[in-house]
Design a protein that fits this description.
With 572 residues, the protein is an alpha/beta fold. Helices cover 35% and strands 14% of the residues. The strands form six sheets. The chain has a five-stranded mixed beta sheet, sandwiched between helices. It has a four-stranded parallel beta sheet with strand order 11-10-13-16, with helices on both faces. A four-stranded mixed beta sheet has the order 12-19-18-17. A hairpin with a 2-residue loop joins β17 and β18. The chain is globular. The protein binds 2 iron/2 sulfur/5 carbonyl/2 water inorganic cluster and iron/sulfur cluster (SF4).
């Protein structure tokens, strides 16, 4: 242990601890901008400078290890003045459009200026104006607002294993950009939006599709259908000041109806359907010697990662479309026929925790007879903005139910939103099919939780099903390397592109205190697991609307009609 004094308080911390961490353990809150524990510990922004007795200059506490007998001041005159100058220098090059910025009131730079009492701009230098990169269907990049903290670079490289953005140039011309300054859509970006979530300011944001949705809602010729992903319902409330993990499903449905959607369906219904289709496909592959391990295909960030970085595994992907695409396809076929509506007049809007779904919905592979399954995707954040624009008092809305025919779901579907959820849902159904029983023990705890890679061998009847779960694409890459090298051997793998799964998708409410990310993920996941535990039906094959869909329309699981509408194939 190392003894030191911080602001006159004596403390003891393990060797190797940084001064920042030691201070925080004493509840001394040193400000940071670039720091991200375990991800971006680079001392770039210098906001965390402290005075160390005997040192010639101020030191960045986030990268400074403690030393025996060290005496640290975190709030001396020199420290305060240095931080103020640093902030003002950052402001001098930052485009200060707070009132119209997507991060207004949710910006770390704005918050720091307020906390540190910055009341003027002392430096007005020459500024370079950059063109805003709007080419990607998912992510908008505005270098005019970038403060060069490097957090997006580290997340993209270390957490997602992609590394498509980096520092370029020197001095005042330093930027964060792609190779050759290409648009994000021209490089191997997977549209995951994790860089948006980690950006302290508004330099990265989702491509906002609200206007297209309002336009459809205002067009009386269009039949506008909304569907909502599992993870949205346990996060949307945060945008209205509710505790993290609150289930706002009923209020969300009411809000969508008040916004003018003709029908509000539940993507959870299609998650149940995915389990039937994917479970049948898995059992078929095991029985008939098909390509194993089979890997889930519902996360579009993961699909794009697989296409760019591990395309030798494309044949391992399940041929199932992702649930929201399935629901879109069924809205324009099954539902349209039932209601006598021209599918061309149906506009399907998916409300998703995910920015990659924006890209996915435009993919040619996912059209049926030339028609898109889903016409627009908006994130949890964009839905919150629409609700605010419509001036609804969200907290006081009554609870409403999803609309019939594709609004019923089970506990298996709702847990899709957390890492391991798709696997657990699939195991519940596969186990019942293989044993011919209605099994009661259906909580598969080894696949739950935030460990980056989870593995389990599940004994079902005579078969030992070997499974693995990875979330965050860098973890997926590590898992695939193991499979490729013959170090591991599975029947079925679940991959979700975002760390934590959809609950921490690139379109979810921004967690301003990054230290709390894990805690927030756990609470959102707990919200989903609580819903599951309380639902009367917890296995996808028990969903009565799914049974009706097969009886009335699809026929067999994996049958001809199901393949036409619900499956696809990704090629190199
Ligand atoms: Fe997801 Fe999915 S779970 S991908 O994480 O399979 O986005 O929530 O909607 O489509 O159902 C996201 C969440 C979501 C799909 C489902
Ligand atoms: Fe990297 Fe994902 Fe951001 Fe693309 S969207 S730049 S892959 S973090």
């Amino acid at each position: 242990m190392v003894n030191l004094t911080i602001d006159g308080i004596k403390t003891q911390v393990p060797k190797g601890t940084t001064v920042l961490a030691a201070a925080r353990s004493l509840n001394i809150n040193i400000p940071t901008l670039c720091f991200l524990k375990d991800i971006n510990e680079v001392g770039a922004c210098r906001m965390c400078v402290v005075e160390v007795k005997g040192a010639r200059s101020l030191q960045a506490s986030c990268v400074l290890p403690v030393a025996e007998g060290m005496e640290v001041k975190t709030n001396s005159k020199d420290v305060r003045e240095a931080r103020s100058v640093i902030l003002k220098l950052i402001l001098a090059r930052h485009e200060r459009e707070c009132l119209t910025c997507s991060r207004n009131l949710n910006c770390e730079l704005q918050k720091l200026c307020e906390e540190m009492g910055i009341d003027g701009l002392d430096f007005q230098g020459e500024k370079i104006t950059y063109a805003v990169d709007t080419a990607s269907p998912s992510v908008v990049r505005d270098q005019n607002k970038c403060i060069l903290c490097g957090r997006c670079i580290s997340v993209c490289r270390n957490v997602q294993g992609t590394g498509v953005i980096n520092f370029a140039r020197r001095g005042v011309k330093t930027t964060v950009t792609t190779s050759y300054d290409k648009g994000l859509s021209e490089v191997a970006c997977i549209n995951c939006g994790q860089c948006i979530k980690i950006c302290p300011v508004g330099a990265l944001r989702e491509k906002d599709d609200r206007d297209r949705v309002w336009e459809a809602l205002d067009n009386s010729d269009m039949y506008v259908v909304a569907q909502t992903a599992p993870a949205v319902r346990v996060a949307l409330g945060e945008e209205f000041g509710m505790p993290v993990g609150t289930n706002v499903e009923g209020k969300m449905v009411s809000a969508l109806k008040r916004l003018g959607f003709d029908k509000v369906f539940d993507t959870d219904f299609a998650a149940d359907l995915t389990i039937i289709e994917e479970g049948t496909e898995l059992l078929g592959r095991i029985k008939n010697g098909g390509k194993l391990p089979m890997i889930t295909s519902c996360s579009p960030g993961w699909i794009k990662y697989c296409e760019h970085y591990h395309n030798d595994f494309l044949d391992n992907l399940s041929s199932c479309k992702s649930p929201h695409q399935m629901l879109g396809a069924l809205t324009k076929s099954y539902y349209a026929e039932k209601m006598g509506i021209d599918p061309k007049k149906i506009f399907v809007v998916s409300i998703m925790p995910c920015t990659a779904k924006k890209f996915e919905s435009g993919r040619e592979e996912l059209k049926v007879d030339g028609l898109r399954d889903v016409d627009a995707v908006i994130t949890t954040r964009e839905l919150a903005r629409m609700i605010k624009e419509a001036r609804m008092d969200f907290g006081t809305l009554e609870d409403s139910k999803f609309d019939k025919v594709m609004g019923e779901s089970t506990g298996a579907a709702v847990i899709f939103g957390a890492t391991g959820g798709v696997m657990e849902a699939a195991l519940r159904t596969v186990a019942d099919i293989l044993t011919g029983q209605d099994l009661k023990d259906i909580d598969y705890n080894p696949v739950r939780g935030l460990e980056g890679i989870k593995e389990a061998a599940v004994k079902i009847g005579d078969l030992e099903v070997k499974v693995a779960v990875a979330h965050g694409t860098a973890n997926a890459g590590k898992l695939l390397d193991k499979v490729r090298n013959g170090e591991a051997n599975y029947h079925f793998i679940e991959v979700m592109g975002c760390p934590g799964g959809c609950i921490n998708g690139g379109g979810q409410p921004i967690i301003i205190d990054k230290e709390k990310t894990e805690e927030v993920c756990k609470k959102r996941a707990q919200g989903l697991y609580t819903m599951d535990a309380e639902m009367p039906l917890r296995k996808s094959h028990k969903n009565p609307e799914i049974k009706a869909l097969y009886d009335e329309y699809l026929g067999e699981a994996n049958g001809h009609k199901a393949h036409h509408l619900l499956h696809t194939h990704y090629v190199k």
